[in-house]
Design brief:
Layout: H1 6-13, E1 18-19, E2 21-27, E3 30-36, E4 39-43, E5 48-54, H2 58-66, E6 68-73, H3 79-85, E7 100-103, E8 106-109, E9 114-126, E10 129-141, E11 147-150, E12 153-156
Antiparallel strand pairs: 1-11, 2-3, 2-6, 4-5, 5-10, 6-9, 7-8, 9-10, 11-12
The structure holds flavin mononucleotide (FMN).
Length: 158
């Protein structure tokens, strides 16, 4: 059986609606963060989160160096943040004009629907990505609707 081509794989999986997060980590000279939807809860006992980050992600380097990472689940009104954190703009520039706070030593996007702080546990190479898991150390929840990504577009829920 010959495998389907990567473009077909990509567009097939674009049919799976997901939430949109910013995975973040502290660096000595400021925060790092990337838009990520390959993020999920993994285990309850112990409480673990999972994120898959591209091998070339600068945020991945920051996560490994800091040994901690944060997951900010974006609110429906935070599409501009999702767009900006999906770029390769200079790491510090991504945070310009973005309201954020340091929580448990990790940068968090203000106004996010959910905030989860993790201590890095596993780093597993997987194809062109690296799977990181983290033990949940802190969390906070807000109110409102999530930002959704589906069919290559940002959408509000419903
Ligand atoms: C909706 C959306 C979801 C994304 N999900 C991921 C993801 O799960 N993992 C990842 O490594 N990159 C993902 N990306 C791409 C990164 O945001 C992008 O490569 C970014 O430039 C990485 O920034 P960094 O190098 O500063 O870490 C996603 C992009 C978009 C628009």
């Amino acid at each position: 059986m010959s495998p389907p081509d990567p473009a077909r794989f990509r567009s097939a999986m674009a049919m799976l609606p997901t939430g949109v997060t910013v995975v973040s980590a502290a660096r000595p000279d400021g925060p790092a963060g990337a838009t990520a939807n390959a993020v999920c809860s993994l285990s309850i006992e112990p409480m673990l989160m999972l994120a898959a980050l591209d091998r070339g992600s600068r945020t991945l380097l920051a996560v490994q160096a800091a040994n901690h990472f944060g997951v900010s689940v974006l609110h429906a009104g935070q599409e501009q943040i999702a767009r900006s954190f999906a770029t390769k703009a200079p790491v510090a520039e991504k945070w310009d004009g973005v309201a954020w706070s340091e929580r448990s030593g990790i940068p968090a996007i203000d106004g996010a629907l959910v905030w989860i702080a993790c201590e890095l546990r596993d780093v597993v190479a997987a194809g062109d990505h690296v799977i990181v898991t983290g033990e949940v150390r802190d969390l906070a929840t807000g109110e409102g609707e999530p930002l959704v990504f589906h069919g290559g577009r940002y959408r509000p829920l419903g």
